[in-house]
Specification:
Elements lengths: L1 E7 L2 E6 L9 E10 L1 H7 L14 E6 L13 E4 L2 E3 L15 E3 L11 E4 L4 E3 L6 H4 L2 H14 L6 E5 L3 H12 L3 E6 L2 H9 L4 E4 L4 H9 L4 E6 L10 H5 E10 L10 H6 L3 E5 L6 H9 L9 E6 L3 H10 L6 E6 L2
Parallel strand pairs: 10-11, 10-13, 11-12, 13-14, 14-15, 16-17
Antiparallel strand pairs: 1-2, 3-4, 3-8, 3-17, 4-5, 5-9, 6-7
Helix pairs in contact: 1-10, 3-4, 3-9
């Protein structure tokens, strides 16, 4: 089978390897892989990993064997899970985040290859109402839903969301669905403009105007909760504590290889409840329903499909420019 592998920073090689069956796992033909800035930073050596590694965190495929259960028959279209339980390595040192999770394409091999072998509990069957492109966004939506649930949001509350990447926009949209009022904060004006075009009414630049604008929106009060998106850029991880009113909930959403520094003393003084929400796998069925029932409108996202031969060039482009949040890049492997 064809495999695309990072052997060092800026070094992506295509090679052939045997697809060796693994007892207890199903064979899945990988059909499409979402490629984003996280993959590009890994390619450029700006994110830590252990080489060699196969990139590709988000993928869909088709089950190509007949050895499993009736719930997942041969030919079933599936979403491959991006975050997997860490395997017991005994005394061998683990990579970052591996105490509980393996991150496909970063701390363990990802999906840029023709075939993978996975357990049935490591994939989710897709209904006809969710096409392959929309399915590639399910992990983001599921994580957003897990984050909103962690905050115990009430109707009418103002929730600060720091980071207007695709995950931050989904968190904001789901807060609106809960009849809360998100305040989306980011350093990039283009992201905020896109969010407003998708119905996120309150936005603010992450600069000196933030607190005056927050007071204007809330009537002079601090936010009723806050979400921090580490993957959205170099925002101050202490900002959720600063913008949140005493006695409320804040959430740090998603696994990130970089260390986050937080003044817990201030959080304790404000009696804040701090949640870490690393993964949304348990919410994938909820995310499927949100798409299938058209609760979340994905029509503004533009999916562009590339052949596998364009992968190296695409990774270079994604790592070197400010890609619009609406642009979704997909590698087609069939």
């Amino acid at each position: 089978m064809n495999v695309w592998k990072l052997t060092a920073a800026n070094t992506l090689v295509k090679c052939e390897e045997d697809a060796v069956p693994v007892p207890g796992k199903r064979r899945v033909r990988v059909t499409k892989v979402l490629v984003n800035r996280a993959d590009a930073l890994l390619y450029l050596g700006k994110e830590k990993t252990r080489y060699p590694i196969i990139p590709g965190r988000y993928a869909v495929g088709i089950v190509s064997d007949e050895s499993g259960s009736a719930q997942i028959p041969k030919g079933a279209r599936v979403l491959l899970h991006s975050y997997l339980p860490a395997e017991d390595t005994g005394t061998e040192p683990k990579n970052f985040a591996e105490d509980d999770f393996r991150i496909c394409g970063q701390t363990s091999d990802g999906f840029l290859r023709d075939f993978v072998y996975v357990r049935e509990e490591e994939m989710t069957v897709l209904p006809d109402a969710v096409n392959d492109e929309k399915a590639l966004l399910l992990s983001f939506i599921a994580l957003a839903q897990a984050t909103v649930d962690a905050l115990d949001v009430r109707r009418g509350e103002h929730i600060a969301v720091i980071g207007a990447n695709i995950l931050g926009i989904f968190v904001s949209r789901l807060l609106i669905y809960r009849q809360a009022a998100p305040i989306l904060i980011d350093a990039r004006r283009d992201r905020l403009d896109f969010a407003r075009s998708r119905g996120v009414y309150y936005t603010s630049p992450a600069d000196e105007t933030l607190f005056p604008m927050l007071g204007e929106i809330t009537g002079g009060r601090l936010a009723d909760g806050a979400v921090f998106i580490p993957s959205a850029g170099k925002h101050d991880p202490a900002l959720p504590v600063s913008v949140c009113a005493p006695g409320k909930h804040i959430a740090y959403c998603g696994l990130n290889p970089d260390d986050l520094t937080l003044d817990l003393g201030k959080a304790i003084r404000k009696q804040l409840t701090v949640h870490g929400v690393p993964d949304g796998t348990d919410y994938l069925e909820t995310a499927i329903n949100l798409i299938a029932n058209k609760t979340l409108d994905l029509s503004a996202f533009r999916f562009t499909t590339y052949p596998a031969d364009a992968l190296k060039e695409l990774l270079g482009e994604l790592g070197g420019s400010l890609v619009p949040v609406s642009e979704i890049s997909v590698i087609n492997l069939v």
